[in-house]
Write a structure and sequence with these properties.
With about 270 residues, this protein is an alpha/beta fold. About 35% of the residues lie in helices and about 20% in strands. It is built from seven helices and ten strands. The strands form two sheets. A six-stranded mixed β-sheet has the order 6-7-8-3-9-10, sandwiched between helices. A four-stranded antiparallel β-sheet has the order 2-1-4-5, with helices on one face. Strand 4 and strand 5 form a beta hairpin. Helix 2 packs across helix 3, helix 2 runs parallel beside helix 4 and helix 6 crosses helix 7. The longest helix has 18 residues. The radius of gyration is 19 Å and the shape is globular.
Amino acid sequence: MSARAPLVRAIEATKVYAGRDAPVHALEKVTFGVHASEFVSILGPSGCGKSTLLSLIAGLLPLSSGQIVIGDTVIRSPYTDVGIVFQRDVLLDWRTVLGNVMIQAEIRRLDRRAALARARELLVQVGLEGFEDRYPFELSGGMRQRVAICRALLHDPPILIMDEPFAALDALTREQMNLDLLELWEQRKKTVIFITHSIPEAVFLSDKVIVMTPRPGRIQETLTIDLPRPRTLAVRETPEFLAYTRQIVGLFKTAGVLRERSTAGEQVPR
């Protein structure tokens, strides 16, 4: 991958919001690249600008300075050739599963027959065959997020942006969604930029993990995850996996994000 130019590039991307009393520096000079078909996780504490960074990549927010480049396009407005999955599934309660997926086709004015065939194919791939006519209130949290992923992929975008999509799920469902997402990624080889607060999740899913500092968000370190694919849950028990998680924990201790306590209950400086 290193021999090819990245598909997505952030070049000294900086974002400052106008605050009530003073400007809020969300991101400061963030530079990184994501190659085509690469799975990259962005990991960092709350408030470090992770979601802001995704909005900048999608062109939903303007930069204060720096550049976002996708292919040969400098992003200055909403970039439509991307799929976005949010933390909440944002399904419309009055539309069926298939109807929610087809919203993408209606907005983009895609050929209806081709889009219907693709929507049904995607629903089969994520294990929702037979649920096409159900409504969101009839689905579990994991099933709702599967619908959201299908909706994001309907127009076959090369890039999939995911903003903590599994954060609200219970632990077992989240594990299964990780496995399902990897299977879908291996089949379709999308370029995925994935935000999470979970260190094991980031290591398990990714080719590369970008570790952010507290606000203003900067890149503390980028780790290449050299674990074999396809991955199963068994990889989490390997010394190599545990070494990556320990390394990231160490980075967060250095940044002051994680602080241990002594046996007497007092914080131990790190």
